[in-house]
């Protein structure tokens, strides 16, 4: 159940970032709102998988930079994960397109803030 909640939070955060940042676009199907929601959930699934498997390795390898910048390099890592999600999802018909690195930084900042706020509202298992 926690995975589904995390997936929905990520989907909402990605959708919100695509609405607020002009360089982030989500491919629309043209078949209606239900199909668009499934596209956003598919992109969120890719984003969640990238954050679960790739991000810990990147954080471990960049540990000296994380210490040197007092954790601010995490924003760069989040932007890179968003760019990786964009690259993976662009290989399909439904995709996320991010124009550049600074667009990814702004999108990652929005996604991170939305994740923090919504995760605080969702009760934990404890």
From TrEMBL:
InterPro entries in the cross-refs: Phage_holin_4_2 (IPR007165)
Alphabetical UniProt keywords: Membrane, Transmembrane, Transmembrane helix
TM helices/strands, residue ranges: 33-54, 66-88, 100-122
Pfam families: Phage_holin_4_2
Highest rank taxon of the organism: Bacteria
Coiled coil: none
Protein name stated in the entry: Phage holin family protein
Organism: Rhodococcus xishaensis
